[in-house]
């Protein structure tokens, strides 16, 4: 079934407060938050959709609403489709503009020693270690494209940086484990042999079982 749409807007939209208009005669603008160029077709629909999709926490300060009412193509619709279309309604999203301070704080959090940068980097390290992924995952084209979409301001660390971080994590966790083992009274050991499917190398694994009481 093909649907046609008509739009109704009330009030004056402030969507352009979030974009930098292009030169006179050009359609579209540049987002002030992620610097992505968004093309328009004489209205602000694409601009609003960009904010909803890429910056859902941003809300506009005006009372403008955009109602999208689906109109069925009566030439290619049966009774069941007509009932479905008649009962469906479009949701209205309200946007709120961020303050300049919050925008600058958000940008700074992705810089060196930033909070969000540290959180994302730690999760990447966890993902590589947990899933046994190769260290060059951060160099893959697909991975970098994904990060560019979900976190445009984030700079993916180099492979050597990830390697050093994993080594540091190993040293910290191994030290913590050794301290815990020193507190147990008995330790039951089992041994097993397994082969790594990636490089066909065999390993002897020693597993320890104990009852640990956290005092």
From TrEMBL:
Keyword entries, A-Z: Metal-binding, Nucleus, Transcription, Transcription regulation, Zinc, Zinc-finger
Broad class of where this protein is predominantly found: nucleus
Top-level taxon: Eukaryota
Location(s), subcellular: Nucleus
Domain (BED-type): residue spans on this chain: 10-62
BP GO terms, sorted: post-embryonic development
Pfam family, one: zf-BED
GO terms, molecular function: DNA binding; electron transfer activity; heme binding; iron ion binding; zinc ion binding
An annotated GO cellular component: nucleus
PANTHER family according to UniProt: ZINC FINGER BED DOMAIN-CONTAINING PROTEIN 39, ZINC FINGER BED DOMAIN-CONTAINING PROTEIN 4
Protein name, entry field: Zinc finger BED domain-containing protein 1-like isoform X1
Chain's gene name: LOC114239362
């Amino acid at each position: 079934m093909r649907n046609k749409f008509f739009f109704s807007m009330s009030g004056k939209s402030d969507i352009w407060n979030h974009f930098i208009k292009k030169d006179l005669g050009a359609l579209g603008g540049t987002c002030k938050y992620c610097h992505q160029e968004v093309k328009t077709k004489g209205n602000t629909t694409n601009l609003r959709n960009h904010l909803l999709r890429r910056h859902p926490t941003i809300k506009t300060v005006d009372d403008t609403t955009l109602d999208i009412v689906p109109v069925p193509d009566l030439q290619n619709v049966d009774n069941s489709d007509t009932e479905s279309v008649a009962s469906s309604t479009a949701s209205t999203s309200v946007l709120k503009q961020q303050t300049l301070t919050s925008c600058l704080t958000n940008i700074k959090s992705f810089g060196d020693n930033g909070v969000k940068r540290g959180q994302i980097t730690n999760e990447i390290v966890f993902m590589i270690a947990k899933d046994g992924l190769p260290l060059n995952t951060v160099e893959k084209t697909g991975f970098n494209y994904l990060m560019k979409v979900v976190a445009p301001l984030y700079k993916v660390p180099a492979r050597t940086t990830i390697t050093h971080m994993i080594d540091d994590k190993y040293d910290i966790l191994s030290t913590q484990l050794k301290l815990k083992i020193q507190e147990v009274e008995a330790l039951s050991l089992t041994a097993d042999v397994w082969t790594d499917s990636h490089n066909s190398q065999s390993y002897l694994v020693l597993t320890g079982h104990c009852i640990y009481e956290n005092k």
